[in-house]
Amino acid sequence: MIxxxxxxxxxxxxxxxxxxxxxxFRSKKLLQNIGKFVGGISQQLSSFxxxxxxxxxxxxLQQSAGLLENWITFVEDEELKNNILSIIxxxxxxxxxxxxxxxxxxxxxLTRYNLLLDDSGENIQxxxxxxxxxxxxxxxxxxxxxLESAMTGSPTPFADAYEIIQSYHKIFPLTKEEVLLLxxxxxxxxxxxxxxxxxxxxxxxxxxxxRKQAIADREMFQQLSSDKQDFATALxxxxxxxxxEKNLDIERFFKKSNIKPVFANKNILEIIDISPASEIYNDGxxxxxxxxxxxxxxxxxxxxxxxxL
Length: 309
Hints:
- The protein is mainly alpha-helical.
- The protein has helices at residues 28-45, 61-71, 78-92, 95-98, 138-151, 157-171, 176-203, 208-223, 229-239, 245-256, 289-306, and strands at 2-4, 7-9, 18-19, 103-106, 115-117, 124-127, 134-137.
- The strands form three sheets. The protein has a three-stranded antiparallel β-sheet, with helices on one face.
């Protein structure tokens, strides 16, 4: 702080870099580097504390459900409003689980506007905007990052999320309980953004910037339906190499059962990956049943063509 011309001035160093939002394509390497970088931040902040961080701010996910119940009145579209209300009700069932996860000081706003890249466009130069720093759920840092720096605006949102989670987990290991809450937190954050935009537009109907952002945010919100909960959770668990209860039950069953292989010659067998992380679901196929079906059939036909049966 310096005192000049009868005023106090807060002077900051200028940080070079290009905002992530200006990059038209987020490569696999870039996504992995983002995950590693933010994993490092979470690791460092896990042992840091400051009394000023314990403050109520609207962008803290701990406040989201309560704020949404007030902001929902500003959402005019009935279908959109009902979807947000559904997410609020779903979130209420997670309160007991979220109360048991780790808390720490987090940046809380690692969006595509606050991550700066170097000249190569594949490495993180630094981060900006510390106005939302708070003491909150540690997993909330990753939820905000995934939604706003990986999924929004991406043609392959879940594949991009997978890359970031996998790299983040290698640096800052997540617990199974945290991973199970990740998708509901992403939904909650998305709903909060939609509600906040509706509220802002009710006060500033001519604000073109907010209106433009609201369109992109609503499009993303509509892709985060509750019927993708199982798919997303299975994908996120696989990214962390954590087995779900369903997978563990299957493994226990096969260990107890005396099941013999169908094919005597195992050399002709080939695994066709239809797991949530499969490339079959790339290019938007995860959200298109017909496209997924065609890709599955193509993989099976390819196997029969290369094996004379």
